[in-house]
Amino acid sequence: MMKRTVAGGLLALAIASAGVSSAMAEDKVTLRLNFLLSGVHTIFYYGVEKGFYKDAGIDLQIGEGQGSARTVQAVATGGDTFGIADGGSVIAGATRGAPVKSVLGLLNTSPYAISFRADAGVNTIKDIEGKSVAASAGEASLALLPAIWKKNGIDPSKVKILNVDGPGKIIAVMQKRTDGTLAGLENQVVVLKSKGLEQKVFSFVELGVNTQGLTIIANSKQAETNQDLVKRFVAASIKSIEAAKADPDAAVAAAVKVKPTGDAKLLKDQLDVSLTLLASPADPSARLGKMSPADWQQTLDLMKEYQDIKTDMPADAFFTNAFIGN
Fold this sequence. Notes:
The structure is a single chain. By secondary structure, the chain is of the alpha/beta class. About 45% of the residues lie in helices and about 15% in strands. The protein contains 14 helices and 10 strands. It has a 5-stranded mixed β-sheet, with helices on both faces. Strands 7-6-8-5-9 form a 5-stranded mixed β-sheet, covered by helices on one side. α5 (about 85-95) packs across α14 (about 295-305) and α11 packs across α12 (about 250-260). It starts with a helix and ends in a 20-residue tail after the last helix. Residues about 1-25 have low confidence and may be disordered.
């Protein structure tokens, strides 16, 4: 009887140990967002809830961010495994020596836009002359305004730029201290709409200036030495995007469970817009997550011309589609 008890105990211990080993086999991974919780970020909280990352052997922890530049720095130094950052910030960081590379295109259509109060009298972009636009120092779209002026025959000396902080842009427009503001289609445009403001919105894409939008970035060295992890993370993220497209409400609910202070309606409105920006205008039928070389080349060219980026690195040095699969 004692032998059976001991044998049974050993068997139970072996089973328990196998369970522990299985759990320990999951890679602990962090994803640093590009900013505070927004609609597009609900995709990843939903992926965690659905178990896509766990099924890929990944124990994922998601942390909010303080801008794409900070996220690039965090991934470059190894503080985070993966991050969300726009293409311009990836190029800016990589040309300064940060070992980062985009491995998945999230928003392949640029979300940058200029939003005007409907009563400001801006019916075509040419009407911007004589008007004011709120902007925050350092925001990526501000540096691209000269390209907008050039593409659309606008005299920049006739456009007043009102320098305010991020949250102040919304207030300035609402209080009529400015005619319009630099905005994200999936961000400030949605927020202003939620506040009841009627707007006339011009996207940078329709104005002839598309740049690579949000991407998933990895440390370049890790992308070389731990390709399996990157491939599993990318695959789980694509599943998460597909699931959020199929049920946006569930994606928002998953995020609000983790972040109860989140405004579910605002997040849903932001996510709905974000889902329209997944594909690149240069290659709208491409596989989900695949990035267009043309978008990266245009982003690099614009940054060289307008943002004082000096580099001999080719556009394909900043991204790879190798982990996306066929």
